Amino acid sequence: MTRSDRLIAAAGALALGIGTAAAAASAHFQDALDATRLGSASQMLLVHGLGLFGLALARHAWPSKRRTLGWIAALLAAGLLLFAGSLLFAVAFDASTALAPFGGGLTILCWVAAAIVFLLPVRSAK
Fold this sequence. Notes:
mainly alpha, single chain
């Protein structure tokens, strides 16, 4: 695996760790809104953390798609940061969640882009 692949996988592992912590914390909040926000953030972090692992492996498996999948992974991580970060920040500091929809939309677009990339034929090495 390249350094970039390892960085993407590390971002996925970090998302999984934070997602697990958020899930555990949500069980202890009395405020229903904060518990819901933590639960939503943890679900996104856990699912898309695994997705980042998958993208790192796909980059390794298909060198001809490495650059495109790298951009998708970077934008996915940014979307995840905007969505989950907004919710976690709101719980910690009673702040707005205004960035969450942008992060969610970016995350959706990344997975649509990944589906298109996976459906395109693989260029053979000459």
